[in-house]
Sequence to fold (119 residues):
Amino acid sequence: MRVITILFCFLFFATQLTSCAKAVAGVGIPAQQEFILGEYSNRSYKAVLKNQGTTDVTVSVRDKSTGEQTQGFGLAGSATVHISANEEVHLINNSDREAQVKVKLNANVQGMGYKALQK
Fold:
């Protein structure tokens, strides 16, 4: 019985560790483009964003159904953003140089891609 209890505890903690796994990526955003994160995600998550260069990046969290901005700010250093299931993150590069942003997520987020900015 003690072996079963120990095995159960081990399996429980192993699944907890894997479910808390974090994804970290360096994202290069070309000039005059935006990177959209969470377009197809259907659950809430947290993103830690860090501007790793000198190029200005604007963060715009938008409602997926209306397109209205729910959060927005310039990313000078680093910031933590909490995104609900009905929101997506837009990392906007209005400059003429590539921007570099480090993105750390606390969940598996589906739907990432680039889009040219409309002039």
